[in-house]
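Table S2 (text version). Query chain:
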Amino acid sequence: MPGALSHIRVLDLSRVLAGPWCGQILADLGAEVIKVERPGAGDDTRTWGPPWMKDTAGNDTREAAYFMAANRGKKSITIDLSRPEGQALVKRLAAQSDILLENYKVGGLAQYGLDYASLHAEMPKLIYCSVTGFGQTGPYSARAGYDFIIQGMGGLMSITGERDDLPGGGPQKVGVAVSDLMTGMYSTVGVLAALAHRDVTGKGQHVDMALLDTQVAMTANMAMNYLASGKPPGRAGNAHSNIVPYQTFPTSDGHVIIAVGNDSQFAKLCAVMGCPELAKDERYATNPSRVKHRAVLVPLIAERIAQKPMQFWVDALEAVGVPCGPINDLAQTFADPHVQHRGMRIELPHPTAGKVPLVGSPIKLSETPVTYQSAPPTLGQHTEDVLSTVLGLDGNTIAQLRADGIV
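Corresponding structure-token output:
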């Protein structure tokens, strides 16, 4: 069945994570995504290993797991953008594309005539998405942006980590590059909105995406807590600033997450713990009161939870509808029967690794389901195919381009 975007072609000039993440989502939705890479080197993340993918004999393929995470379903071609002939090829590919993704520094593609202004003048229907650290305008626009730095500048690290007055307290980044990933997701939303606009007006546009903008936006309720109160929220570890109890608790053999979202759930928690009177205490009967008396209430709950093993609490609380769960490592996550049922681990054939395991898409569409077109490509795997089928170049011309080091 054709994917929802099977009529769309994407020219992906991006590398590392934020831009490629957007490209991968579009590929999963059926778009033809042509990834342009540097001859002989490719995307930086191709060398970000170990770990490397293994071939059928168990040997390293030198295909980094990092690259595999963000480039499923794409076609890889190699073109030297520093050469006029390479620039001409990319311009011709752009003319045959609906969307162009790039994450060069602001103004970086202007020297090649591949910036938005240059291409828009010739290709007014092209949707051009630029992903940078700080956006196309503003005092920081010329700076390079990296996820770690953005997590700090955008406020995320000020609310992530244990409280400063507790052991291990201090700023902490998130375990994955969330600024990059969320920017890739917002970029996807942006280009799809631009496609919808083009369907009505016939006009393309520039989608200007910045990691810092995204990071500020994704602080969500924590940002609103500040805007409403004028007081910047601090780090709360695994606790929640607005809800109690909503955190991890030590058990007799590990930890459990208990996430009480309303007063009814709190009453059920108290009943399971054997202290129903807590739910009737005016200090704890409502969530605002529980937040106010957090310092007294949480130790009372912790004392009870510590007396029994984690699985006891998961089973008992789940039975009465109190949200709870274990803290899994990734091996446990992928072994979970529900994760397996939802298809979050897939395998695809790969030219050098035989078959590669990959993380599936979370998007479930009833009429146009996600299609996994191919595994992440080897460097330049589709150069000849794309140049011949999209641009109509013959074998001799492609061979000469390769001999000249253009592709």
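Notes on Table S2: The mean pLDDT is 96. The CA atoms of residues 153 and 212 lie 8 Å apart.
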